[in-house]
């Protein structure tokens, strides 16, 4: 396995800074705004950023009805609901706990209701 170059580490640190700072801003914003408005501000900021990147690269938003139909269904489920719940969670939990509790799962990964999967020995794995 090769060692990642410096650009990879820089990108990872930038991603961690952006991701972590969003939780800091949520904790500050809920002190002066209702949670619904904080979630709306996060989504609006993301939309404006997306439009700016599209304009800077000379690309356009998709125009097909099928794409917008899929977006109308997935946006509330994948963006609006989680961001709103994260903000509501930010109101309810102590500072510093929110990023740990609210870590996002990849789409399609099931939520373990009873906790993480138990550790299996190699013999148990091969028989399963």
UniProtKB/TrEMBL annotation:
It holds the Pfam family EamA. Residues 12-86 form the EamA domain. The keyword RNA-binding does not apply. Residues 109-128 are annotated as: Disordered. The keyword Chloroplast does not apply. This is EamA domain-containing protein. Keywords: Membrane, Transmembrane, Transmembrane helix. The chain crosses the membrane at residues 12-30, 37-57, 77-98. InterPro entries: EamA_dom. Belongs to the EamA transporter family.
């Amino acid at each position: 396995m090769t060692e990642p170059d410096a650009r990879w580490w820089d990108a990872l640190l930038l991603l961690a800074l952006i991701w972590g700072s969003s939780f800091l801003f949520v904790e500050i914003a809920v002190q002066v705004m209702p949670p619904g408005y904080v979630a709306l501000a996060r989504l609006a900021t993301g939309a404006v950023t997306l439009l700016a990147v599209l304009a800077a690269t000379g690309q356009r938003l998709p125009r097909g009805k099928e794409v917008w139909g899929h977006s109308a269904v997935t946006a509330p489920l994948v963006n609006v609901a989680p961001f709103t719940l994260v903000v509501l969670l930010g109101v309810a939990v102590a500072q510093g706990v929110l990023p740990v509790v609210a870590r996002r799962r990849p789409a399609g990964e099931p939520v373990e209701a009873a906790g993480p999967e138990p550790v299996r020995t190699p013999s148990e794995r091969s028989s399963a």
